[in-house]
Amino acid sequence: MLKNFVITFKEKRDQLFEPIKKRLENKKGRIRSIETYRDILTGLLDIYISSVSNKMNEVMKVLTVFASIFIPLTFIAGVYGMNFEYMPELKWKFGYPLLWVTFIVFTALSLAYFKKKKWI
Asked: Residue 108 belongs to what H/E stretch?
């Protein structure tokens, strides 16, 4: 009698919980699909962030080249713009042209260096 009751109870239990089991299996499949989509979207986001980062690095490289050329020139022009009284090269006949030659040579060497490095 008890054995029949246990068997009947198990059958009833299985009948009652069968729809719930099917729903759970369906939900598990949906959760797996959602996790797959999440992984795909995470990969796409990583690709996008990497692309934006590479573009920003290119911009920073160009800005570095310009700064590397113009900051020293600005410093030299600033020193000569202070109008010190005792700067011997101010009295030289070719002081001003020599300064321009220095500017042009420095700029040309900087550009050649950056082209050699393939930065520009």
From this structure: helix 95-116
Per-residue pLDDT, 41 = 96
How many C-beta neighbours within 10 Å does residue 28 have?
10
| pLDDT value, residue 45 | 96
Q: How many C-beta neighbours within 10 Å does residue 93 have?
A: 7
In DSSP notation, 2-47 reads: HHHHHHHHHHHHHHHHHHHHHHHHHHHHHHHHHHHHHHHHHHHHHH
- For residues 29 and 15, what is the distance between their CA atoms, to the nearest angstrom? 22
118 backbone φψ class: left, alpha, beta (φ>0; ψ -120 to 50): left
CATH fold group of domain 2-116: Methane Monooxygenase Hydroxylase; Chain G, domain 1 (1.20.58)
H/E segment holding residue 61: helix 2-80
DSSP letter (8 states) at residue 119: -
Domain borders along the chain are 2-116
Show the low-confidence residues of the chain (pLDDT under 50).
none
Q: Are 103 and 76 in contact (CB under 8 A)?
A: yes
